[in-house]
Amino acid sequence: MVKKGEPVGYCVYAMHRRKDLYGSDAEKFRPERWDPNEENEVSLKNIGWGFLPFNGGPRVCLGQEFALLEASYVIVRLLQTFKDFEHDPMREIVEVGQERQDVTLVLASADGCHIRVRS
User: Fold this and answer.
1) Among 111, 115, 114, which residue's Cα sits nearest to residue 100?
2) pTM of the full predicted structure?
3) Nearest 5°: CA angle at 91, between 86 and 94?
């Protein structure tokens, strides 16, 4: 039992990989797990506080709206500017989930995302 005033810590990285919340393949990058029309081992319909990409409550990320706006803008501008996107053939294809990760305040690919674009 947590007593009043007692500090509580948690790890969002670990929480987002809980098999009881996300299924036995929780470690895998599988975006279709969020599709309500897909048959999944676990329903994420009422995941609630089990998914905290920007934290929540009084500790919610102040930059959440800006980050989502900025990402949306960049994606739309890329799609408007370039007609073709492909993997850089000079780079090895690494299976999703097997790439090197850089874990700091956020999770990112340690090697970046190397693509070729054509306008």
Assistant:
1) 111
2) 0.69
3) 90
Concatenated DSSP letters for 40-73? -SS--TT-GGG--BTB-GGG--TTHHHHHHHHHH
For residue range 3-14, what is the model confidence (pLDDT) as tens digits? 999 998 888 888
Amino acid at 88: D
First-last CA distance in the chain = 59
H-state helical runs in the chain: 12-15, 19-22, 64-81
Task: Give SS3 for 12.
Answer: helix
Q: pLDDT tens for residues 73-89?
A: 999 999 999 999 999 99
Report how far residue 95's alpha carbon sits from residue 19's, in angstroms, rounded to the nearest whole number.
21
* DSSP strand pairing (101-103 vs 115-118): unpaired
